[in-house]
Amino acid sequence: YLQADETPMPVLSQDKPGSTHKGYFWAYYSPVKKIHCFDYNKSRGREGPDVFLSGFKGYLQSDGYAAYDHFQSKDITLAACMAHARRYFEHALDQDKERADYVLGQMKKLYAIERRAREQDMNADQRLALRQEESVPVIKELESWLKEQLNHILPKSAIGKAIAYSLGLWDRLC
Question: What contacts 100, CB < 8 A, 6 or more positions away?
C-alpha cells in the first residue's frame, strides 16, 4: 500500500545562473512500513511514476491526477484520497455552508471510524469488518445525497466542483 502525491518546486537552472525552472518532487509513503521516499523529476508527466513504480503491486492511493490512471491493472488497485475530496468541500463552505457542512459531517463520521480502528490497533480483518458494518452505510447515504444534489447546484460553483470531483472518483474513494 503506497500513497503518492507530487508537488512543484523551483529548481536552479544550470543554463542561466540565478534563474529557476519548475521541477516536481514526487512523494511516496508506505503507511504500513512507515517509509517516505521522494523522487525528483523535471516534469509532472507520468514518466516519473512509471519508472519509480515499475514492478509495484498493491494499492496506490493518490488524488485524481490523471498521471496515475494508467496504473489501474490486475496488479495495482487505485484508491483516491478522502483528504483531497474533503478540501473541495472546505472551499465551498463560504458559498454553500449547508451542503458543505453536511458532507464534512459525513466525512467526519468516516474519519472517526478509522481513528477508532487505529486506536484499537485493529488488524486488517477487523478493520474490514468495522468498515463493512459502520462505514458502508455512511458511504452509501453520502453517495445517494451527492447524486441527488446534482439537480440543485450550479456545476461551476464551489459545491458543484466538490461534488463532481468526489463523484468522479467515487469508486476509488470507497
Answer: 89, 90, 92, 93, 158, 159, 162
Rounded to the nearest angstrom, the gap between the alpha carbon of residue 63 and the centroid of all alpha carbons in its chain is 4
Q: The cell 478522502 sits on which residue? A: 82
* Distance from C-alpha of 23 to C-alpha of 10, rounded to nearest angstrom: 6
Whether this prediction's pTM lies above 0.90 is answered by no
Specify the residue for cell string 464551489.
Answer: 158
Query: Tens of pLDDT along 57-103?
Result: 999 999 988 888 888 888 999 999 999 999 999 999 999 999 999 99
Burial 133-164 (b: 16+ CB within 10 A, else e): ebbeebbeebeeebeebeeebeeeebbbbbbb
> 73-83 pLDDT, tens per residue?
889 999 999 99
